[in-house]
Amino acid sequence: MIKFAFFCSYHTFSRNNHWSKYSYMCGASSEPLKPYTIGGVFNDAVQQTPDREFLVSRHENKRFTFAAINSEVDNLCRSFNAIGLKHGDRVGIWMPNRAFYYTAIIATARLGLILVNINPAYQSDELKHSLTLAEVKCLITIEKFKTQHYPEILEKVDAEIWKRPPNTPVKSKILPTLKSVIFVSENSLNGAYNLQTFLDLGFNTDYNISKIQPDEGCNIQFTSGTTGKPKAALLNHFGLINNAYFIMKRLGIYDDTNKGKLHKFCCPMPLFHAFALSIAVVAPMVTKSTVYLPSAHFDSKATVDVLTKEKCTFIFGTPTIYLDSMSAFEKLPPEQQDNDLKIAITGGATCSPNLMNKFKNMFPRAKLLSVFGMTETSPCSFQNFINDSDERIMSTMGFIQDHVEAKVVDTNGDMVPFGTPGELLIRGYLKMNGYFNDEEKTKETIDSNGWLHTGDQFVLYEDGYGNHVGRLKEMIIRGGENLFPKEIENFLESHPLITQVQ
Known about the structure:
Blueprint (H helix, E strand, L loop, with lengths): L5 E2 L2 E4 L5 E4 L2 E2 L11 H11 L4 E5 L4 E4 H17 L7 E5 L4 H13 L2 E4 L6 H10 L2 E6 L2 E2 L2 E2 H8 L22 E4 L9 E2 H7 L15 E6 L9 E5 H15 L12 E3 L7 H14 L2 E4 L6 H10 L4 E4 L1 H11 L13 E4 L6 H10 L4 E7 L6 E4 L6 H6 L3 E2 L3 E6 L12 E7 L5 E2 L3 H7 L6 E9 L5 E6 L4 E3 L2 E3 L1 H9 L9
Parallel strand pairs: 5-17, 7-8, 7-9, 8-14, 9-12, 12-13, 16-17, 16-18, 18-19, 19-20
Antiparallel strand pairs: 1-4, 2-3, 4-23, 5-6, 10-11, 14-15, 15-25, 20-21, 21-22, 23-24, 24-26, 26-27, 28-29
Helix pairs in contact: 1-3, 2-3, 2-6, 4-5, 7-8, 9-10, 10-11
């Protein structure tokens, strides 16, 4: 595959009268960006491949074609309309991986609503912060997951909610914007709708789809909040669709409707994560592929079971997910290890030599590649090519994405030479709209020229590849030297007896 990047080299005159090259790069592309919405892309898939299997939720024993999911989406849209949700309203979803999550993502996108993804592990304080910051009008959840009992957690936020009869609207002084709570359950709980009663509200009704612009916000992802309470990053249709499309293009996964090639995606990651939203939700729509949910939360045995029995061709995850899954895989008898895996991508950390070697030994016909990004960039800004060498994959986070601008700057905001660490700045279609209801943090992150300051210590090379050094806020100054935990971790992981360091 031919790699293109435009390099605009800036020069300043140094003290020794030599010209020093400073870098800026932009990922060139032979294809224009796609001005589509998530609802539009899904509708196209339904029209072109209605009977193709789209979603398989193994732990729920449910299988859906594109047409079947579309029917579920229609029902949910009618009910959203029946409770008075309007274009731009926020709908919270607080649950682990399950088929209904897909229905909610597509239905909210189709109506011009904004889906607010809430970590299913959140407790009452985090839940209250999320619902308040995003001004959630409707919350969809389940009764129980692992040790979490969601009605009890919600009661800690506002006990007044449960004083109302079942299947009635919410009235809350603590959460004034919240008007409806829906439990994906058959049980009737005070102050909330059960799923069937909620769906019945939309029975024999219709809904109108307002005109939705591609650059409208459609999905709120909460950041990790390592330096305070989580921020609500608002992502848009345009960024999510194009990022998913160009990630897949670089992997060689296309819409093969007319060629008979069907890719099967394995999703071990949580759907509330931006990585999963892009790769496990939007990308299968774009490529008209099938996606498999092995379990409600990550389970290495369930992941391996899907890989081997459903013959998945593609998987994505973090190094930890791969290491745990490979440990489960090697425990299988040889006759149960047959698989069709061809492509795997890892994000969240550099692909270590130990991870690469172990992966190649277990899946010799598959290719393991790296991607790099963050929630605020929808999420991927750098990615390996399918034909990159193992050495390149282990030593970099990939090549700059198509249509994406990047530069690395010092603490004064001046660009540094190629190969010199500094803060990575990103600009382009993939950039978030901003932090919802937080103009101050948005201005701190996105400057007046449209550059998004990632907070990542990064190195850009003249060939278009880059490498992540660490988070700026994690930097350790020792004897005048800047050290990053990631550098220490990478050094320790180079030892053959060390699998992973954190």
